[in-house]
């Protein structure tokens, strides 16, 4: 793993139009090639934080850089190439009438040549066991298939950073295990927001707890997720594997 910093967040604050403060002076450095879990109770600011990483939200105070690129209005095209964001709801990423067209949309939008698109889309669909479904309408896929189809729309772009927001929320045990295996094989900088602390345990080296828009704790997965007192103080529970 490289020792370089892939993501640097400095003094990031953000409030919604109704005045709700979602992020309060967050600073965080994430190493290239590392895997980081972001956990916390509902309303802690987790999704708001990761939605800044691909420019969905722009900083109101502070700054974010991805590699050497500062996140701002002028850099959004470059940021979208660098960062792939898997939304909580896969339906938010699947909008065409045919699965193949959804996967090809990103490369086409960024001007990749036709032959390269065809090759890359087939590679990703086969990698995620979706090739036989390529002509189906995404609306006709199972929830598990939709989750992996949404992931394919990201992987086809070969981003340097993959951000996942509640990736196991609609997966059965078999597809959950399949996703764990895929995530552990990414070899990319990975950030995962999840209430599924067992998934975080299985896929993340580092864990940050958020509480009321701030980083309340930051350490290795075992240090953070094995600390019952710390978790309970932040309205969380031990991973299931550590309970009992």
Would you give an account of this structure?
With 244 residues, the chain is of the alpha/beta class. It has a single domain (5-237), classed as Rossmann fold, CATH 3.40.50. It is 33% helix and 25% strand. It contains nine helices and ten strands. It has a six-stranded mixed sheet with strand order 6-7-8-3-9-10. A four-stranded antiparallel sheet has the order 2-1-4-5, covered by helices on one side. β4 (61-66) and β5 (69-70) form a beta hairpin. α3 runs parallel beside α5. It is globular, with a radius of gyration of 18 Å. The two termini are 35 Å apart. The mean pLDDT is 95.
Count of beta strands: 10
Order of helices and strands: EEEHEEHEHHHEHEHEEHH
Looking at CATH, the homologous superfamily is P-loop containing nucleotide triphosphate hydrolases
Shape: globular
Total number of domains: 1
Which fold name fills CATH's third level, the topology?
Answer: Rossmann fold
| Mean pLDDT over the residues | 95
Q: Based on helices, strands and strand pairing, what is the structural class?
A: alpha/beta
Number of helices: 9
The main pleated sheet reads as:
6 strands, mixed
